């Protein structure tokens, strides 16, 4: 195994649950046909600027592909959340705080995805 591959492999082994969650969420984002993206919108809508419309007011050809893309793109958030969890675990942080941080990373990632998408439309 190459020298550059060892740290990548050890990271993947150490964060295997997050890697599996990434794969499952990516498939769910596609197979749910946008339902995951819509559910994520409901989870972050209260923190979006008031100028953005309600989900009921979305119109146009961009809506359904955006829901699917956000659902799939959200899965990428599991990778940095897993890396941060690993760092906190090695630092001796209690499991309940690590779970809170993990969920917060996923929520912030969903919020950023929706914020960037709505800024374009």
Structural class: mainly alpha
Order of helices and strands: HHHHHH
Helix content, binned percent = over 70%
Spans of at least 5 consecutive residues with low confidence: none
Q: Give the integer mean of the pLDDT values.
A: 94
Distance between the termini: 46 Å
Number of helices: 6
Describe the global form. globular
* Radius of gyration from CA coordinates: 16 Å
For this entry, what is the oligomeric state of its chains? single chain
Number of strands: 0
Keywords:
121 residues; mainly alpha; globular
Structure description:
This protein is mostly helical. Helices cover 72% and strands 0% of the residues. It contains six helices and no strands. Helix 3 crosses helix 6. The chain starts with a helix and ends with a helix.
Fold topology:
Blueprint: H1 5-14, H2 16-31, H3 35-44, H4 63-74, H5 78-90, H6 95-120
Helix pairs in contact: 2-4, 2-5, 3-4, 3-6, 4-6, 5-6
